[in-house]
Amino acid sequence: MLERSRNGRIVFAGDSIGRNQWESMLCMLASAVPNGSRIYEHSGKPLSRHKGYLSMIFLDYNLSVEYYRAPMLVMVDRIPPVASNKGASVTRGAIRLDALPRHATRWAGADVLVLNTGHWWNEHKTIKSGNYFMVGNRFNMKMDIKEAFRLSLQTVKDWALSNPRLSTRGYLFFRSYSPSHYDNGTWDTGGSCADQRDPLMMTTGESNQEYSWINTMISSTARGTIRQQMDNRVVFLNITHMTALRRDGHPSRHREPGTPPDAPEDCSHWCLPGVPDAWNQVMYGHLVSTGYGMRLVKK
């Protein structure tokens, strides 16, 4: 992967589970570099930073592996709270369905771009948190989440097709939804995945309802991009079923240092080494099958 990616950029953009996959890629590539001191963050930012973006440089390969936080893939503007008639602040943010985040200009020029979204597309993260959908300069207070998600993906597709470098030589992966495994509640109501030591042997249809509509729309976006221009360089990276089996792979109560002892369990993100490594292996398999970086390898 390092040789094939020489003088290139691998970019991950999405939510914190996309960051999980980015961290996995960093660890896997770093294990093949004998001199770890020649790997560094471009601007000297600590890897504990969760906002904005991070760019790790593999100096011996002139390669950057970058992560951009964009949980909804479209722009979310924070605005001064607008009070309701009862005095409660109800409008805190504008989810601009027809605009990408400001740092999306940095996604341009990626040799490999991996996008993920889905976990923030629910009522708790949007309407109930005071984040309403906007198209142009107008709020749409009645639009449902599925229609908003569809419009956001259309914006992403239009951007990809209008990006000269990406549409002519880059690889674009739309990663599918990564299932969570909370039992006896949700993340904020005491849900748990503690003491799960074995993968599931099968999943039920009921457990797939959480994300089936999200995957349907993401795969449709990928197919539409392929048909219009980008052939086999656009991929719906479907990791959902294999991931749904891995109830044993979450940090659970073993959170990062400094997490309060009474914090909710984490049954959404993944331990490393672990499940995201498999996502990256599947992605690399597709890249190899399409001749990614062969000119560099032959030299």
From TrEMBL:
Pfam families the UniProt entry points to: PC-Esterase (PF13839)
Boundaries of every Trichome birefringence-like C-terminal domain copy: 1-284
CC per GO annotation: Golgi apparatus
Molecular-function annotations in GO: O-acetyltransferase activity
Family statement drawn from the similarity comment of this UniProt entry: Belongs to the PC-esterase family. TBL subfamily.
Protein name as annotated: Trichome birefringence-like C-terminal domain-containing protein
Organism: Triticum urartu (Red wild einkorn)
